[in-house]
Task: structure prediction
Amino acid sequence: MTTQSMPAAALDPRTLLSIRGLRVDYEVKSPRLSRTPATVLRAVDGVDLDVHRGQALGLVGESGSGKSTVARCIVGLVRPTAGDITFDGHAMGDGRSREVARRVQIVFQDPYSSLNPRMTVATAIGEMLRVHRVVPRDRVDARIDELLEVVGLGRRMRNAYPRQLSGGQRQRVGIARALSLEPELLIADEPVSALDVSVQATILALLQDLRERLGLTLLLIAHDLAVVRQVCDRVAVMYLGRIVEEGPAESLFGDARHPYTRGLLRAVPSLRPGVRAEQVAVVGEPPSPYQLPSGCRFHPRCPIARARCAVVSPDLSLGDHRAACHFAWVPPAPTDGGLLSGVPPVHEVVP
Ligand code: SF4
Result:
């Protein structure tokens, strides 16, 4: 069964970013076996997603789930094999205008590799302002100072080189560079996974603050649900190239319906005293993307899989909180508001 595409939401005025039927195939060829046909690796398979203006959407999944590939398609770094991406009604294909491209910016995981080691902070930010002519030339210096203040660095950092900065400071410079183009949508691709735990919270707080102060729309990509819980009001969970659950953060964290999401949630530190997070989020390794499982792709690791699961691929359900599982289940309301409180183990769910 193929994944059904949602109808276009172009008429909904709240929608800033709309993705329909996104598919990305990579042809992988062995350099030593030139006559062997290329193997197709399907990194993204039929993703539908909407991001509303001013919303913070978290896109979560293990390594290899395809979440970063989705981000790279949005900013034009990866060409989709199929599907449509529209931003504020404009198609984000090869012919996207410079103006539309400017309105969508991305911050990468590794702040060090995204900065030129020979450029000072001021040069790196000023380069963006000059190339894209965001402000008149005589305003560039003042704008650099403003941006450094906005990201909490201050103008004293103007003449620093990347090697002289901490990981958190480099990430703030990366965010300042992205903000220099005055984007409406900021994509943060694993922005804290290369940082110390103590610094992670400050960068997430900065993103939350920028979102509120500048009215930004945010797409936050992470492998850890605990990261998106701090910032996002909506969450989409990806597994092997597909979205398996998507909905309001409060609903997803309180009433997760897909066994994969429920597994990821068990590794999130609980808000309830005395409840410890489990070390292993989901048992077993993700299957090879070259040999995707039949039926539901999660069935080899799913604690409640049935015979049907190995044959029939589930589509995402309809509604505001969607899940792709034959046995997607709505648990009773939590009694004390805690994470997963009142939710029985998944193996008790299916009769
Ligand atoms: Fe598990 Fe079956 Fe649901 Fe897939 S469809 S998540 S294998 S119960």
Observations:
- The radius of gyration is 21 Å.
- Residues 197-214 form the longest helix (18 residues).
- Residues 56 and 218 are 4 Å apart (CA to CA).
